[in-house]
Protein backbone atom coordinates (compact mmCIF):
# COMPACT_ATOMS: atom_id res chain seq x y z
CA UNK A 1 0.00 0.00 0.00
CA UNK A 2 1.30 3.44 -0.87
CA UNK A 3 1.83 5.52 2.24
CA UNK A 4 1.52 9.25 1.93
CA UNK A 5 4.30 11.22 3.61
CA UNK A 6 2.00 14.19 4.16
CA UNK A 7 2.02 14.69 7.92
CA UNK A 8 -1.10 15.73 9.70
CA UNK A 9 -2.32 16.15 13.14
CA UNK A 10 -4.17 12.99 14.06
CA UNK A 11 -6.29 13.78 17.03
CA UNK A 12 -9.06 16.32 17.67
CA UNK A 13 -10.57 17.87 20.84
CA UNK A 14 -14.32 18.08 21.25
CA UNK A 15 -16.41 19.26 24.16
CA UNK A 16 -20.14 19.61 23.70
CA UNK A 17 -22.93 20.00 26.20
CA UNK A 18 -25.38 17.14 26.17
CA UNK A 19 -28.71 17.04 27.94
CA UNK A 20 -28.67 14.01 30.24
CA UNK A 21 -31.26 11.32 29.86
CA UNK A 22 -33.77 10.92 32.69
CA UNK A 23 -32.73 7.32 33.17
CA UNK A 24 -29.04 6.87 33.85
CA UNK A 25 -27.03 3.87 32.71
CA UNK A 26 -23.46 3.79 34.00
CA UNK A 27 -22.30 0.88 31.85
CA UNK A 28 -20.11 1.64 28.87
CA UNK A 29 -21.67 -1.26 27.00
CA UNK A 30 -24.08 -0.28 24.27
CA UNK A 31 -24.29 1.84 21.11
CA UNK A 32 -22.78 5.33 21.10
CA UNK A 33 -23.02 8.18 18.60
CA UNK A 34 -20.17 10.69 18.38
CA UNK A 35 -20.84 14.41 18.57
CA UNK A 36 -19.34 15.97 15.47
CA UNK A 37 -17.21 13.19 13.99
CA UNK A 38 -19.55 10.91 12.05
CA UNK A 39 -18.87 7.82 14.14
CA UNK A 40 -20.87 5.12 15.86
CA UNK A 41 -19.15 3.09 18.57
CA UNK A 42 -20.41 -0.35 19.58
CA UNK A 43 -19.18 -1.75 22.91
CA UNK A 44 -19.90 -5.11 24.49
CA UNK A 45 -18.35 -6.96 27.40
CA UNK A 46 -15.18 -7.91 25.53
CA UNK A 47 -14.80 -5.74 22.44
CA UNK A 48 -15.37 -2.38 20.78
CA UNK A 49 -15.88 -1.42 17.14
CA UNK A 50 -16.03 1.97 15.42
CA UNK A 51 -18.16 2.63 12.33
CA UNK A 52 -17.86 5.65 10.03
CA UNK A 53 -21.34 7.04 9.43
CA UNK A 54 -22.63 9.33 6.67
CA UNK A 55 -26.19 10.00 5.53
CA UNK A 56 -25.84 7.10 3.07
CA UNK A 57 -23.24 4.72 4.53
CA UNK A 58 -22.10 2.77 7.57
CA UNK A 59 -18.57 1.39 7.24
CA UNK A 60 -16.48 -0.55 9.80
CA UNK A 61 -13.45 1.52 10.84
CA UNK A 62 -11.53 0.05 13.80
CA UNK A 63 -12.06 -2.63 16.42
CA UNK A 64 -10.29 -4.33 19.28
CA UNK A 65 -10.46 -5.71 22.80
CA UNK A 66 -12.21 -3.39 25.24
CA UNK A 67 -9.45 -3.92 27.81
CA UNK A 68 -7.11 -1.94 25.53
CA UNK A 69 -9.15 1.26 25.73
CA UNK A 70 -11.39 0.94 28.80
CA UNK A 71 -9.14 3.09 31.00
CA UNK A 72 -9.51 6.03 28.60
CA UNK A 73 -13.31 5.99 28.88
CA UNK A 74 -15.52 7.77 31.38
CA UNK A 75 -19.31 7.76 31.52
CA UNK A 76 -21.62 10.33 33.06
CA UNK A 77 -25.37 10.67 32.50
CA UNK A 78 -25.31 8.48 29.41
CA UNK A 79 -22.55 10.58 27.87
CA UNK A 80 -19.31 8.74 27.11
CA UNK A 81 -16.05 10.69 27.12
CA UNK A 82 -12.96 9.14 25.54
CA UNK A 83 -9.65 10.79 26.28
CA UNK A 84 -6.69 10.50 23.91
CA UNK A 85 -3.69 12.48 25.01
CA UNK A 86 -4.92 16.00 25.76
CA UNK A 87 -7.97 15.43 23.53
CA UNK A 88 -11.52 14.40 24.34
CA UNK A 89 -14.25 12.83 22.24
CA UNK A 90 -17.87 12.89 23.41
CA UNK A 91 -20.52 10.28 22.55
CA UNK A 92 -24.19 10.03 23.44
CA UNK A 93 -25.94 6.73 24.01
CA UNK A 94 -28.46 5.66 21.37
CA UNK A 95 -30.98 2.87 21.76
CA UNK A 96 -30.41 1.11 18.45
CA UNK A 97 -27.74 0.44 15.91
CA UNK A 98 -28.27 2.84 12.94
CA UNK A 99 -30.53 1.35 10.26
CA UNK A 100 -27.80 1.93 7.68
CA UNK A 101 -25.53 -0.48 9.54
CA UNK A 102 -28.14 -3.25 9.31
CA UNK A 103 -28.90 -2.83 5.61
CA UNK A 104 -27.50 -5.02 2.88
CA UNK A 105 -24.07 -3.78 1.82
CA UNK A 106 -23.98 -1.87 -1.46
CA UNK A 107 -21.37 -2.56 -4.12
CA UNK A 108 -18.26 -1.19 -2.42
CA UNK A 109 -16.58 -0.54 -5.76
CA UNK A 110 -19.44 1.41 -7.31
CA UNK A 111 -17.92 4.70 -8.52
CA UNK A 112 -20.95 6.89 -7.84
CA UNK A 113 -21.49 5.39 -4.37
CA UNK A 114 -17.88 6.10 -3.40
CA UNK A 115 -18.14 9.65 -4.69
CA UNK A 116 -21.32 10.27 -2.71
CA UNK A 117 -19.78 8.96 0.53
CA UNK A 118 -16.84 11.29 0.00
CA UNK A 119 -19.08 14.26 -0.81
CA UNK A 120 -21.45 13.60 2.09
CA UNK A 121 -18.54 13.49 4.53
CA UNK A 122 -17.31 16.87 3.32
CA UNK A 123 -20.80 18.37 3.42
CA UNK A 124 -21.22 17.36 7.06
CA UNK A 125 -17.73 17.97 8.44
CA UNK A 126 -15.62 20.43 6.43
CA UNK A 127 -14.95 23.49 8.59
CA UNK A 128 -13.86 26.08 5.99
CA UNK A 129 -16.62 26.55 3.44
CA UNK A 130 -17.11 30.16 4.57
CA UNK A 131 -13.44 31.04 5.08
CA UNK A 132 -12.52 29.74 1.62
CA UNK A 133 -15.70 31.12 -0.01
CA UNK A 134 -16.83 27.73 -1.33
CA UNK A 135 -20.19 27.24 -3.04
CA UNK A 136 -20.60 23.61 -2.01
CA UNK A 137 -23.80 22.87 -3.91
CA UNK A 138 -22.30 24.05 -7.18
CA UNK A 139 -19.01 22.22 -6.68
CA UNK A 140 -20.75 19.02 -5.66
CA UNK A 141 -23.18 19.00 -8.60
CA UNK A 142 -20.51 19.85 -11.18
CA UNK A 143 -18.21 17.12 -9.86
CA UNK A 144 -20.95 14.50 -9.66
CA UNK A 145 -22.00 15.22 -13.25
CA UNK A 146 -18.56 14.08 -14.43
CA UNK A 147 -19.42 10.54 -13.35
CA UNK A 148 -21.26 8.17 -15.71
CA UNK A 149 -21.64 4.43 -16.27
CA UNK A 150 -18.23 4.25 -17.95
CA UNK A 151 -16.30 6.07 -15.19
CA UNK A 152 -13.29 4.24 -13.78
CA UNK A 153 -11.43 4.34 -10.46
CA UNK A 154 -8.88 6.63 -12.12
CA UNK A 155 -11.69 9.02 -13.06
CA UNK A 156 -12.97 8.93 -9.47
CA UNK A 157 -9.51 9.70 -8.09
CA UNK A 158 -8.97 12.64 -10.44
CA UNK A 159 -12.44 14.06 -9.72
CA UNK A 160 -11.84 13.88 -5.97
CA UNK A 161 -8.37 15.40 -6.29
CA UNK A 162 -9.86 18.27 -8.28
CA UNK A 163 -12.54 18.81 -5.62
CA UNK A 164 -10.00 18.91 -2.79
CA UNK A 165 -7.97 21.50 -4.68
CA UNK A 166 -11.04 23.67 -5.28
CA UNK A 167 -12.08 23.31 -1.63
CA UNK A 168 -8.66 24.72 -0.66
CA UNK A 169 -8.48 22.16 2.12
CA UNK A 170 -5.04 22.25 3.72
CA UNK A 171 -5.54 18.79 5.18
CA UNK A 172 -7.58 17.33 2.35
CA UNK A 173 -6.13 14.17 0.83
CA UNK A 174 -7.17 11.01 -0.98
CA UNK A 175 -5.09 7.84 -1.11
CA UNK A 176 -6.04 5.32 -3.80
CA UNK A 177 -4.29 2.03 -4.54
CA UNK A 178 -0.81 2.08 -6.04
CA UNK A 179 -2.18 0.95 -9.38
CA UNK A 180 -4.80 3.70 -9.59
CA UNK A 181 -2.32 6.34 -8.48
CA UNK A 182 0.24 5.31 -11.11
CA UNK A 183 -2.37 5.19 -13.90
CA UNK A 184 -3.62 8.62 -12.91
CA UNK A 185 -0.11 10.06 -12.85
CA UNK A 186 0.60 8.63 -16.29
CA UNK A 187 -2.63 10.13 -17.62
CA UNK A 188 -1.77 13.53 -16.19
CA UNK A 189 1.73 13.47 -17.64
CA UNK A 190 0.49 12.45 -21.09
CA UNK A 191 -1.90 15.41 -21.10
CA UNK A 192 0.82 17.92 -20.28
CA UNK A 193 2.65 19.58 -23.14
CA UNK A 194 6.33 18.79 -23.17
CA UNK A 195 8.36 21.73 -21.99
CA UNK A 196 12.09 22.16 -21.77
CA UNK A 197 12.89 23.13 -18.21
CA UNK A 198 16.15 23.60 -16.40
CA UNK A 199 16.81 20.69 -14.08
CA UNK A 200 17.36 22.00 -10.56
CA UNK A 201 18.34 20.09 -7.49
CA UNK A 202 15.31 19.02 -5.42
CA UNK A 203 15.55 18.34 -1.70
CA UNK A 204 13.42 16.25 0.60
CA UNK A 205 12.31 17.72 3.95
CA UNK A 206 14.44 15.32 5.97
CA UNK A 207 17.38 15.80 3.61
CA UNK A 208 17.58 19.59 3.84
CA UNK A 209 16.98 19.48 7.60
CA UNK A 210 19.96 17.16 8.00
CA UNK A 211 22.19 19.34 5.83
CA UNK A 212 21.36 22.42 7.90
CA UNK A 213 21.83 20.70 11.24
CA UNK A 214 25.21 19.27 10.23
CA UNK A 215 26.38 22.75 9.25
CA UNK A 216 25.06 24.49 12.35
CA UNK A 217 26.38 22.07 14.96
CA UNK A 218 29.88 22.60 16.27
CA UNK A 219 29.36 19.86 18.87
CA UNK A 220 26.91 17.16 17.79
CA UNK A 221 25.33 15.40 20.79
CA UNK A 222 22.72 13.40 18.85
CA UNK A 223 22.23 9.77 19.89
CA UNK A 224 19.90 6.92 18.92
CA UNK A 225 17.68 8.81 16.46
CA UNK A 226 17.66 10.28 12.96
CA UNK A 227 14.45 12.27 13.53
CA UNK A 228 16.17 14.94 15.59
CA UNK A 229 19.63 16.50 15.77
CA UNK A 230 20.89 18.45 18.74
CA UNK A 231 24.05 19.87 20.17
CA UNK A 232 25.90 23.16 20.50
CA UNK A 233 26.82 25.93 18.10
CA UNK A 234 29.51 28.51 18.70
CA UNK A 235 29.39 30.54 21.92
CA UNK A 236 27.52 27.86 23.87
CA UNK A 237 24.29 28.26 21.89
CA UNK A 238 22.05 25.16 21.94
CA UNK A 239 20.49 23.90 18.74
CA UNK A 240 17.65 21.39 18.28
CA UNK A 241 16.58 20.28 14.79
CA UNK A 242 13.17 18.54 14.75
CA UNK A 243 12.37 16.84 11.44
CA UNK A 244 8.87 15.55 12.20
CA UNK A 245 6.19 15.50 14.90
CA UNK A 246 5.66 11.76 14.70
CA UNK A 247 7.54 8.44 14.10
CA UNK A 248 8.87 8.39 17.68
CA UNK A 249 7.03 5.32 19.02
CA UNK A 250 9.03 2.16 19.75
CA UNK A 251 7.20 -0.36 17.54
CA UNK A 252 9.88 -3.08 17.27
CA UNK A 253 9.93 -2.79 13.49
CA UNK A 254 11.21 -5.62 11.34
CA UNK A 255 14.52 -4.60 9.73
CA UNK A 256 13.87 -6.65 6.60
CA UNK A 257 10.56 -4.85 6.08
CA UNK A 258 12.30 -1.51 6.57
CA UNK A 259 14.84 -2.41 3.87
CA UNK A 260 12.04 -3.52 1.54
CA UNK A 261 9.42 -0.81 2.10
CA UNK A 262 11.29 2.03 3.80
CA UNK A 263 11.07 3.18 7.42
CA UNK A 264 8.02 5.45 7.19
CA UNK A 265 5.87 2.92 5.30
CA UNK A 266 6.85 0.11 7.68
CA UNK A 267 6.26 2.34 10.67
CA UNK A 268 2.79 3.42 9.52
CA UNK A 269 1.69 -0.16 8.84
CA UNK A 270 2.64 -1.11 12.41
CA UNK A 271 1.23 2.13 13.83
CA UNK A 272 -2.15 1.65 12.16
CA UNK A 273 -2.48 -1.77 13.82
CA UNK A 274 -2.59 -0.09 17.24
CA UNK A 275 -5.70 1.37 18.82
CA UNK A 276 -5.94 5.15 19.09
CA UNK A 277 -4.94 5.25 22.74
CA UNK A 278 -1.84 3.09 22.16
CA UNK A 279 -0.77 5.32 19.28
CA UNK A 280 -0.84 8.42 21.48
CA UNK A 281 0.82 6.75 24.46
CA UNK A 282 3.69 5.29 22.45
CA UNK A 283 4.39 8.49 20.49
CA UNK A 284 4.51 10.58 23.67
CA UNK A 285 6.72 8.02 25.42
CA UNK A 286 9.17 8.07 22.52
CA UNK A 287 9.51 11.84 22.23
CA UNK A 288 9.57 12.25 26.02
CA UNK A 289 12.55 9.95 26.31
CA UNK A 290 14.42 11.91 23.65
CA UNK A 291 13.56 15.29 25.17
CA UNK A 292 14.79 14.16 28.59
CA UNK A 293 18.19 13.49 27.06
CA UNK A 294 18.21 16.66 24.95
CA UNK A 295 17.35 19.00 27.80
CA UNK A 296 19.96 17.39 30.01
CA UNK A 297 22.59 17.86 27.30
CA UNK A 298 21.66 21.50 26.68
CA UNK A 299 20.71 22.72 30.16
CA UNK A 300 23.87 24.85 30.55
CA UNK A 301 23.58 26.66 27.20
CA UNK A 302 22.95 30.42 27.21
CA UNK A 303 19.96 30.04 24.89
CA UNK A 304 18.49 27.45 22.51
CA UNK A 305 17.48 27.57 18.84
CA UNK A 306 14.67 25.15 17.94
CA UNK A 307 14.54 24.63 14.17
CA UNK A 308 11.23 23.37 12.71
CA UNK A 309 11.49 25.12 9.34
CA UNK A 310 11.43 21.82 7.44
CA UNK A 311 8.93 20.00 9.68
CA UNK A 312 5.66 19.06 7.93
CA UNK A 313 3.85 17.99 11.08
CA UNK A 314 2.59 14.83 12.75
CA UNK A 315 0.80 14.76 16.09
CA UNK A 316 -0.14 17.66 18.35
CA UNK A 317 0.70 15.65 21.47
CA UNK A 318 4.30 15.29 20.26
CA UNK A 319 4.54 19.04 19.61
CA UNK A 320 3.24 19.88 23.08
CA UNK A 321 5.48 17.32 24.76
CA UNK A 322 8.43 19.13 23.18
CA UNK A 323 7.16 22.61 24.03
CA UNK A 324 6.38 21.88 27.67
CA UNK A 325 10.12 21.48 28.34
CA UNK A 326 10.28 25.28 28.12
CA UNK A 327 7.21 25.92 30.27
CA UNK A 328 7.32 26.55 34.03
CA UNK A 329 3.59 26.39 34.82
CA UNK A 330 0.44 24.87 33.36
CA UNK A 331 -1.24 27.42 31.13
CA UNK A 332 -3.96 27.80 28.54
CA UNK A 333 -2.48 28.10 25.07
CA UNK A 334 -5.33 27.97 22.58
CA UNK A 335 -8.97 27.18 21.81
CA UNK A 336 -10.49 24.63 19.50
CA UNK A 337 -13.92 23.90 18.08
CA UNK A 338 -15.26 21.24 15.72
CA UNK A 339 -17.77 21.35 12.89
CA UNK A 340 -21.05 19.91 14.17
CA UNK A 341 -24.22 19.79 12.06
CA UNK A 342 -24.58 23.29 10.54
CA UNK A 343 -22.58 24.99 13.27
CA UNK A 344 -19.69 24.29 15.62
CA UNK A 345 -19.21 22.97 19.09
CA UNK A 346 -18.41 25.39 21.90
CA UNK A 347 -14.82 26.63 22.05
CA UNK A 348 -12.71 24.30 24.15
CA UNK A 349 -9.53 25.47 25.92
CA UNK A 350 -6.26 23.64 25.31
CA UNK A 351 -3.58 23.58 27.99
CA UNK A 352 0.18 23.17 27.99
CA UNK A 353 1.53 21.18 30.92
CA UNK A 354 4.68 22.27 32.73
CA UNK A 355 8.05 20.58 33.04
CA UNK A 356 9.64 19.62 36.33
CA UNK A 357 12.84 21.47 35.50
CA UNK A 358 11.94 23.73 32.56
CA UNK A 359 14.44 25.57 30.42
CA UNK A 360 13.36 29.19 30.97
CA UNK A 361 16.27 30.96 29.31
CA UNK A 362 15.58 32.47 25.85
CA UNK A 363 14.42 30.11 23.12
CA UNK A 364 14.28 31.02 19.42
CA UNK A 365 11.86 29.03 17.30
CA UNK A 366 12.68 28.95 13.56
CA UNK A 367 9.63 28.56 11.30
CA UNK A 368 8.82 28.81 7.60
CA UNK A 369 5.96 28.19 5.16
CA UNK A 370 6.98 24.53 5.31
CA UNK A 371 6.25 24.36 9.05
CA UNK A 372 2.80 22.78 8.93
CA UNK A 373 0.04 21.04 10.86
CA UNK A 374 1.22 19.80 14.28
CA UNK A 375 4.32 21.96 13.91
CA UNK A 376 1.96 24.93 13.81
CA UNK A 377 0.46 23.77 17.09
CA UNK A 378 3.95 24.21 18.52
CA UNK A 379 4.21 27.69 17.00
CA UNK A 380 0.69 28.73 18.02
CA UNK A 381 1.26 27.58 21.61
CA UNK A 382 4.66 29.28 21.78
CA UNK A 383 2.86 32.64 21.55
CA UNK A 384 1.90 32.21 25.22
CA UNK A 385 5.49 31.64 26.44
CA UNK A 386 7.39 34.85 27.11
CA UNK A 387 10.80 33.22 26.78
CA UNK A 388 10.15 32.08 23.18
CA UNK A 389 10.50 34.26 20.07
CA UNK A 390 9.79 33.10 16.52
CA UNK A 391 12.18 33.84 13.65
CA UNK A 392 11.82 33.18 9.91
CA UNK A 393 8.44 33.37 8.19
CA UNK A 394 4.84 32.61 9.06
CA UNK A 395 3.92 28.93 9.20
CA UNK A 396 1.96 27.15 6.48
CA UNK A 397 -1.56 27.85 7.75
CA UNK A 398 -2.68 24.20 7.81
CA UNK A 399 -3.58 24.20 11.49
CA UNK A 400 -6.85 22.27 11.56
CA UNK A 401 -6.91 18.62 12.56
CA UNK A 402 -7.39 16.06 9.83
CA UNK A 403 -10.54 13.99 10.14
CA UNK A 404 -9.56 10.63 8.72
CA UNK A 405 -12.08 8.43 6.93
CA UNK A 406 -12.26 5.50 4.53
CA UNK A 407 -14.29 5.14 1.33
CA UNK A 408 -16.30 1.95 0.71
CA UNK A 409 -13.62 0.78 -1.74
CA UNK A 410 -10.94 1.03 0.95
CA UNK A 411 -9.28 4.31 -0.08
CA UNK A 412 -8.26 6.54 2.80
CA UNK A 413 -9.12 10.23 2.76
CA UNK A 414 -8.97 13.15 5.17
CA UNK A 415 -10.42 16.64 5.57
CA UNK A 416 -10.16 19.65 7.88
CA UNK A 417 -12.99 19.56 10.40
CA UNK A 418 -11.75 21.75 13.26
CA UNK A 419 -10.79 25.36 13.92
CA UNK A 420 -7.95 26.43 16.20
CA UNK A 421 -7.58 29.94 17.58
CA UNK A 422 -5.21 31.68 19.94
CA UNK A 423 -6.43 32.83 23.35
CA UNK A 424 -7.88 35.96 21.71
CA UNK A 425 -9.97 33.79 19.35
CA UNK A 426 -7.90 34.65 16.27
CA UNK A 427 -7.74 31.91 13.65
CA UNK A 428 -4.51 31.38 11.69
CA UNK A 429 -5.77 28.90 9.11
CA UNK A 430 -4.37 29.82 5.65
CA UNK A 431 -2.36 32.80 6.97
CA UNK A 432 -0.12 30.88 9.36
CA UNK A 433 1.31 31.71 12.78
CA UNK A 434 3.37 34.94 12.53
CA UNK A 435 6.98 35.46 13.60
CA UNK A 436 8.60 38.07 15.81
CA UNK A 437 11.38 38.61 13.27
CA UNK A 438 10.70 38.23 9.55
CA UNK A 439 13.37 36.77 7.25
CA UNK A 440 11.14 36.70 4.14
CA UNK A 441 11.65 33.08 3.17
CA UNK A 442 10.26 32.07 -0.25
CA UNK A 443 6.84 30.41 -0.08
CA UNK A 444 7.72 27.82 -2.71
CA UNK A 445 9.10 24.70 -1.06
CA UNK A 446 12.03 23.89 -3.36
CA UNK A 447 12.97 27.55 -3.90
CA UNK A 448 13.24 27.92 -0.13
CA UNK A 449 15.20 24.70 0.30
CA UNK A 450 17.65 25.64 -2.46
CA UNK A 451 18.11 29.15 -1.07
CA UNK A 452 19.12 27.69 2.29
CA UNK A 453 21.32 24.95 0.85
CA UNK A 454 23.11 27.28 -1.58
CA UNK A 455 24.43 29.50 1.21
CA UNK A 456 24.32 27.80 4.60
CA UNK A 457 26.61 30.38 6.17
CA UNK A 458 24.33 33.25 5.14
CA UNK A 459 21.33 31.33 6.45
CA UNK A 460 22.99 30.89 9.83
CA UNK A 461 24.20 34.51 10.00
CA UNK A 462 20.70 35.82 9.23
CA UNK A 463 19.34 33.87 12.19
CA UNK A 464 22.10 34.90 14.57
CA UNK A 465 21.67 38.54 13.53
CA UNK A 466 17.93 38.26 14.17
CA UNK A 467 18.62 36.88 17.64
CA UNK A 468 20.98 39.74 18.42
CA UNK A 469 18.39 42.29 17.35
CA UNK A 470 15.65 40.63 19.40
CA UNK A 471 17.92 40.56 22.44
CA UNK A 472 18.76 44.25 22.09
CA UNK A 473 15.09 45.32 22.15
Search tags:
disordered N terminus, 473 residues, alpha+beta, 2-enoyl-CoA Hydratase, Chain A, domain 1, 23% strand, 13 helices, 3 domains, seven-stranded antiparallel sheet, globular
Describe the fold and architecture:
It is a single chain. Helices cover 32% and strands 23% of the residues. With 473 residues, it is an alpha+beta fold. The chain folds into three domains: 30-102, no CATH class; 111-191, no CATH class; 205-403 and 412-472, 2-enoyl-CoA Hydratase, Chain A, domain 1 (Alpha-Beta Complex). The strands form four sheets. A seven-stranded antiparallel β-sheet has the order 4-3-2-1-7-6-5. A seven-stranded mixed β-sheet has the order 9-10-11-12-16-17-21, sandwiched between helices. Strands 13, 14, 15 and 20 form a four-stranded antiparallel β-sheet that branches. Strand 3 and strand 4 form a beta hairpin. Helix 4 (153-167) crosses helix 5, helix 7 (255-261) crosses helix 8 (263-272) and helix 9 (276-298) packs parallel to helix 10. The termini are far apart. Mean pLDDT is 91; it is low at 1-23. InterPro entries: ClpP/crotonase-like_dom_sf, Tail-specific_protease, Tricorn_C1. Residues 250-440 form the Tail specific protease domain.
Amino acid sequence: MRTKITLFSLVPILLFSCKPNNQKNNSIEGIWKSIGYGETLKIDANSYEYFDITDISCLPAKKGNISEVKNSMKISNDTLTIRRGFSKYRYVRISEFPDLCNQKTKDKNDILYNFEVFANTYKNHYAYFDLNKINWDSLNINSKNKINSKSTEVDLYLIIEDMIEKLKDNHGSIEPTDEVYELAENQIQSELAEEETEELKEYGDFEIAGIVADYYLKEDLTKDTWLMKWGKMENNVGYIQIKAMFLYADLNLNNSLIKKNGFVSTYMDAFDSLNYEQQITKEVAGISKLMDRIMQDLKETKHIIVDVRFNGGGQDVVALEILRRFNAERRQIAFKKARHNNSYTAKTPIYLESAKNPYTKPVYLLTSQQSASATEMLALSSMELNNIKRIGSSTNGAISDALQKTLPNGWYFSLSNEIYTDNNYKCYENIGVPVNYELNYPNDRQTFFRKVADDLEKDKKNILNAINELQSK
